[in-house]
């Protein structure tokens, strides 16, 4: 599968695509409104950054306690429920007079709910598209993310001026309701990918299995840390240029969209696996210009070019899937999503703290330099095909089928071969 037309003809891909698009549009509009609301009320770069990206911190708790639900809940019901929870929570944020602790309590609660959403969403994509279409499907979904963020930040800036931040939050809640309806009536009922009840113990067992592989650990760190540090840079757009923050966000999303199109559609598969580290360096290096507090046009150019590097997540997610047993695909992708979003929240807090004591431009440059440093440290092993040695292949076979030669080997909790989805391969906030 090499064309988007073929992909859109795949049964159920279109309603999944539309559901994700509506959710991203809702998150973009409501996130900008919330950042403006909190910054206007407090004048604090740290609190403004945390209001937009603070829910990400709750993803760490969700990844530790709730992530087993990603493979153990019916996908349609889970996606519908997550969208409805965000609809109600976003509407609650628009209540006049809501105190700051109440705002953060709601957004942290939504972060917990969202920790399951990524695994459900991309585990379902893993089932819907054929093996040779997964990276193309992920590319098209990411393109939608870019388009929705461009339109969402542009529309959000207008809505904040016309409707006020609280009115814009209500518009975001309405978009989440559209997403819930699309998931409920557009997707078919499917059984969970794995048996057993979701539990903290099941989540920890699967997390330990995924983290036990050194190649997977390296990929996870590469997906989480460089990306998160750059989202920390983005969390300072409002204090860096309050009147032009929507423009900066929109152009960053445009660069992200361009990168997804180039890598997902036009770069040959034999080259894609070699681009991970190079794209991560591209993601960070242009932000170093913020050290000199550039004028807004230069800042816009820098973030646009840098955001092409978000396409690194496409090739690294494919690498992660190549290293992961098929029956754990939803959990693996959920751990990626939760870890990435958690790191984004941590980085937003760190960037906001740096900005409090220096300046937004200086803090952005420091975060970018840290991203470059981490990428260089992880670069070995991120390029080329995901090879496994004999012992690693043996361990992968044991993960998939159990240790046939060892009667005492424990069963793989909660996962049966008969419930495994088709074997297929799989960023900012998606």
Helix and strand layout, with pairings?
Blueprint: H1 4-8, H2 13-42, H3 45-53, H4 55-65, H5 69-72, H6 75-93, H7 100-128, H8 134-186, H9 200-211, H10 214-234, H11 237-240, H12 245-266, H13 269-272, H14 276-284, H15 296-307, H16 312-322, H17 329-357, H18 360-378, H19 390-401
List keywords for this structure.
430 residues, mainly alpha, Growth Hormone, Chain: A, 73% helix, 0% strand
Describe the protein in words:
With 430 residues, this protein is mainly alpha-helical. It has a single domain (11-191, 203-400), classed as MFS general substrate transporter like domains (Growth Hormone, Chain: A). It is 73% helix and 0% strand. The chain is built from 19 helices and no strands. It has helices at 4-8, 13-42, 45-53, 55-65, 69-72, 75-93, 100-128, 134-186, 200-211, 214-234, 237-240, 245-266, 269-272, 276-284, 296-307, 312-322, 329-357, 360-378, 390-401. The longest helix has 53 residues, at 134-186. The radius of gyration is 21 Å and the shape is globular. It starts with a helix and ends in a 29-residue tail after the last helix.
């Amino acid at each position: 599968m090499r064309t988007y037309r073929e992909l859109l003809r795949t049964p159920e891909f279109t309603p999944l695509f539309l559901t994700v698009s509506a959710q991203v549009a809702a998150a973009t509009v409501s996130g900008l409104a919330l950042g403006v609301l909190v910054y206007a009320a407090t004048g604090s770069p740290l609190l403004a950054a945390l209001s937009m990206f603070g829910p990400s911190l709750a993803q760490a708790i969700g990844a530790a306690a709730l992530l087993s639900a990603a493979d153990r809940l019916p996908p349609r019901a889970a996606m519908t429920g997550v969208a409805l929870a965000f609809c109600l929570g976003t509407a609650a944020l628009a209540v006049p007079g809501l105190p700051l602790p109440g705002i953060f309590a709601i957004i942290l609660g939504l972060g917990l709910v969202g920790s399951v959403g990524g695994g459900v969403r991309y585990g379902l994509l893993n089932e819907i598209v054929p093996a040779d279409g997964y990276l193309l499907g992920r590319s098209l979904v990411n393109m939608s993310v870019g388009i929705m963020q461009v339109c969402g930040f542009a529309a959000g800036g207008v809505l904040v001026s016309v409707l006020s931040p609280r009115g814009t939050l209500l518009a975001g809640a309405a978009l989440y309701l559209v997403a819930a309806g699309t998931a409920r009536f557009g997707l078919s009922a499917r059984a969970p990918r794995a048996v057993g009840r979701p539990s903290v113990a099941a989540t920890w067992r699967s997390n330990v299995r995924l983290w036990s592989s050194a190649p997977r650990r390296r990929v996870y760190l590469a997906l989480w840390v460089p990306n998160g540090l750059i989202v920390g840079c983005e969390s300072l757009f409002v204090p860096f240029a309050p009147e032009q923050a929507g423009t900066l966000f929109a152009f960053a999303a445009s660069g992200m969209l361009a990168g997804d199109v180039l890598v997902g559609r036009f770069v040959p598969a034999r080259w894609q696996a070699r681009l991970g580290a190079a794209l991560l360096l591209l993601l960070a290096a242009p932000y170093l210009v913020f050290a000199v507090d550039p004028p807004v046009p230069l800042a816009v150019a820098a973030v646009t070019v840098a955001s092409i590097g978000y396409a690194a997540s496409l090739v690294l997610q494919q690498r992660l899937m190549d290293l992961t047993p098929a029956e754990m695909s939803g959990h693996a992708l959920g751990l990626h999503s939760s870890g990435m979003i958690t790191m984004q929240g941590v980085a937003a807090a760190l960037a906001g703290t740096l900005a409090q004591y220096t300046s937004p431009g200086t803090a952005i440059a420091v975060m970018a330099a840290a991203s470059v440093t981490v990428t260089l440290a992880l670069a070995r092993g991120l390029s080329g095909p995901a090879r496994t040695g004999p012992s690693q292949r043996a361990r992968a076979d044991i993960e998939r089928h159990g240790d046939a030669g060892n009667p005492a080997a424990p069963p793989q909790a909660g996962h049966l071969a008969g419930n495994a989805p088709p074997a297929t391969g799989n960023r900012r906030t998606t």
